[in-house]
Design brief:
By secondary structure, the chain is mostly helical. The protein has ten helices and no strands.
């Protein structure tokens, strides 16, 4: 006879409760729900597959729904990658390295990542890094110039800008 500890019993109880309270849907209803999910905002395949896991579908139904979403253009990886890159650059001021890392995490192909990065204008990119460096430099209260530079470099690296560009901009701004 197997012996379970308290946490295992709690986990099994939660799983059982979730399966018992989960409403069942037809494939067409799930397809409509996923269409609405994709219409609300561009999604990648990984996000849609994660959403499908909530419905406990059989593999054949998952495949059929995914093909239908792609055929009807609800799911388009290239469009997703382009809008993701534009949005993260314009709204969050992310650099190209951070955008590449996040797109790879979402299992986007190398071709689509290259295409997405072409959406970022190089002059806007340079202007953005100068702008956020100057703004951050004004906020940092450090008087030691080397520590100030180090803080700026760390900030810009977390934002995902390229090392050579970071060093060039920081040396110009903090001089």
């Amino acid at each position: 006879m197997e012996c379970y500890n308290f946490f295992q019993i709690k986990y099994f109880a939660i799983l059982y409760f979730c399966k018992m309270t989960k409403k069942s849907f037809t494939v067409d209803e799930i397809k409509r729900k996923l269409e609405n999910y994709c219409v609300y905002q561009d999604r990648c395949h990984k996000e849609v597959e994660q959403k499908m896991r909530e419905y406990f579908l059989i593999p054949e139904a998952k495949e059929m729904i995914l093909l239908s979403l792609m055929k009807d253009n609800f799911l388009n990886e290239e469009r997703f990658a382009k809008s993701f890159a534009r949005g993260k650059f314009r709204i969050k001021n992310w650099g190209k390295q951070r955008i590449i890392r996040e797109l790879k995490f979402k299992d986007i192909s190398a071709y689509n990542i290259k295409t997405a990065l072409k959406e970022i204008d190089e002059t806007d990119y340079i202007a953005t890094i100068y702008n956020i460096t100057e703004n951050r430099n004004a906020v940092i209260s450090e008087t030691n110039i080397y520590k100030r530079k180090q803080k700026l470099i760390g900030f810009l690296m977390r934002k995902g800008f390229e090392n050579e560009l970071i060093y060039k901009v920081v040396n110009e701004v903090v001089s």
